[in-house]
Hints:
23% strand, binds zinc ion, alpha+beta, 4 strands, 7 helices
Amino acid sequence: xxxxxxxxxxxxxxxxxxxxxxxxxxxxxxxxxxxxxxxxxxxxxxxxxxxxxxxxxxxxxxxxxxxxxxxxxxxxxxxxxxxxxxxxxxxxxxxxxxxxxxxxxxxxxxxxxxxxxxxxxxxxxxxxxxxxxxxxxxxxxxxxxxxxxxxxxxxxxxxx
Length: 160
Ligand SMILES: [Zn+2]
């Protein structure tokens, strides 16, 4: 029975509340947490969440697909840094603050005209060690591009 579970998961309750503001906040929470206590109760309810949010406008459900994908990553035992490559909303400074990554290096960026741009931050996931080059981007609002460093991919079997 989904609703007995929902009582034990405030986040599930919020996601299913059909209230634009509450749903929006809950989506943001899911997109940024790594807390198993928050994510585990959501695992069996991906379809329910989808159904309950279906009639809300697009503005209320921005990022919903990314949030659901993150719950699936958690369910499948995939390190949650997998979201970085697919979701442009991760500020590396905040991720470091939450202990999700360590910023191991800052590489200065200077263009051909000598203009200094925000440095590329090299971040290492504290969960699996995957390293990323993180670029500051801006389009209407700031966003971040996380590019995995191939030589440090954990699941890259060597050809020989
Ligand atoms: Zn990781």
